Amino acid sequence: MSYVPDNLSYTASHEWLEKIADGRYRVGITEFAQEQLGDIVFVELPETDEAYAQEDECGVVESVKTASDLYAPLGGTIVEVNEALEDNPELINDSPYDDGWIFVMEIDDDSDLDSLLNPEDYRNSIEDEE
Amino acid sequence: MNKTSLYQSHLDAGAKMVDFGGWHMPINYGSQIEEHHAVRRDCGMFDVSHMTVIDVAGVEATDFLYKLLAGDIKKIQVNQALYSTMLNEQGGVIDDLIVYKQADNRYRIISNAATRDKDLDWMNDQVKDFSVTIEEHPDLAIIAVQGPNSEHILNQLVAADLSQLKKFRSIKSDDLFIGRTGYTGEDGFEIVLPSDRAPDFWQKLMDAGVKPCGLGARDTLRLEAGLHLYGQDMDEDNSPINCGLAWSVRKQDHDFIGGSVIAQQREQGADHKMVGLVLDGRGILRHGQTVSDDTGEIGIITSGGFSPTTERAIALARIPKNNTHEKLTVHIRKKQLPCHVVKPNFVRNGQSLLED
Which of B65, B254, B282, B349 could cross-link B259 (Cys pair, CB 3.0–4.6 Å)? Predict the structure, then answer.
């Protein structure tokens, strides 16, 4: 079973969200997602200061095996991206919940938050896939 | 789904298994890139038992293969191997394969897994006028041991002296059939052995420090070496002349199946060629992306990916024969990204051939 930290929220498309301030969330992909992808070799980071609706495509993570779209987990503006991933995309494999974070988002309002999965729901959702 | 006799060995080694053309096969055992480097720098092994082993024997076996295959079966000696395509009447590639000559009029063919049924149907159709038997051997396993240290390691595990075995030659050693062949661009061996012996032999290789490698690394290794993959870089709609395999087709006697089309293409010149592409900036080249020059779309990437040895995005692409542009662009997600054209061979003997 892949590690699913208790202090994060999740999406069905395998992103995690960490609340770092009011209305401000750090986003990455889960350990399960990086395991499925295999060695990650390229990340197309989102544009900063760009507004996204919930579930908009906002970037791409490519592994040796395949390309996987990144989706905005909430509606809002991406205010920061992890530029270290440009030269070291493997940080997502090595440290998916920490050094491998991908972007920070400022959300428009709280209404999208209800659609996120809690750790238990996310664990259940990946159990079938594992 | 089919399992090879090494299925349990893969699980024990921590493999991530995938469905590969109806077979449970390892895609990697953790890190595809580490497996790739092991083959380039040291020694790795692959279970390729899903591939099809077909023995062709009989007084007319050579004549049959001379008609069936586009390559020149008559030029190889006993214990020598030949890479060839097998064509349809239109000159399209039904499959590519390696044929080992085991004795006069006795041959062993190793062909792809996904094409097994159509290959056997085709061969059985074509063999009718020949005094030849075709026998498949699903009871055999195949382990490919590849990398610069494979001779040294393997020599300690088999009776035969492999230092005497030249490239594209084969030898029998007890119940092992060993060819100095492979699909990685490195020195290496492909070992055909009884399925029930395979787990034990695999374990001996593990104990000798050989790294198990999945089909993921097999794909990046063969791409760097510019080796074609059936179904991507060649198919029934393209002749070997149009996909960079003219070298494997015999120059005289076009009296093989599909040969009249090939003779015509040779006379008129091929329409297409295979080139190598290297992406100049960041991103990954993939199968199916379109290739353009300043006049618009001109070709397609047949295989692409990240090359662990060169740390660049590389691809094989089919473009018009007369296109001599050194710079082309590739369409990746709404963008046209610049790339440059190179010979379709990116890595040899562990070293990048790209200028940088």
Answer: B254
A40 to chain B: which residues are within 8 Å by CB?
A: none
Q: What is the β-pairing status of strands B312-320 and B296-307?
A: antiparallel
Helix axes B32-41, B215-224, angle to 10 degrees: 50
- Tell me phi and psi for residue B71, to 5 degrees: -80, 175
The reply to whether B219 and B278 lie within a common domain is no
Are A64 and B220 a contacting pair at CB < 8 A?
Answer: yes
CA atoms within 13 A on the CB side of B19: 3
**Is the residue at B12 inside a domain?**
yes
Instruction: Note whether A57 contacts B: Cβ–Cβ < 8 A.
Output: no
A41 touches chain B (CB under 8 A): yes
Residues B167 and B295 in one domain: no
Q: Is B33 touching A (CB cutoff 8 A)? A: yes
Q: How many domains does chain A have?
A: 1
Residue B82 in contact with residue B98, Cβ under 8 Å?
yes
Rounded to an integer, what is the distance from CA B187 to the centroid of its chain?
14
Domain range spanning residue B319? 271-352
CA pair distance A87, A69, nearest whole angstrom: 19
Q: What are the tokens at B74?
A: 């008559």
Q: Are B276 and B353 in contact (CB under 8 A)?
A: no
Domain with A24 in it: what CATH number?
2.40.50.100
- Could you give the CA distance from residue B260 to residue B91 in angstroms, rounded to a whole number? 8
Tokens of B175: 């119940």
Q: For chain B, what's the residue count?
A: 356
> Helices B61-68 and B116-126 meet at what angle, rounded to 10?
120
Summarised one tens digit per residue, pLDDT across range B305-314 is 999 999 999 9
Residue type at B327 in one-letter notation: K
State the complex-level ipTM: 0.86
Q: How far is A67 from chain B (nearest CA, A)?
A: 9
- Whether residue B172 is contained in a domain is answered as yes
Dump pLDDT digits (tens) for A87-124. Answer: 999 999 999 999 999 999 999 888 889 999 999 999 99
- Considering the domain architecture, whether residues B207 and B340 belong to the same structural domain is answered as no
**Are B220 and B275 within one domain?**
no
Which parts of B139-236 are beta strand (E)?
A: 140-146, 170-173, 176-179, 188-194, 211-212
Give percent of chain A above pLDDT 70: 99
One-letter identity of residue B260: S
Has residue A125 been placed in a domain? no
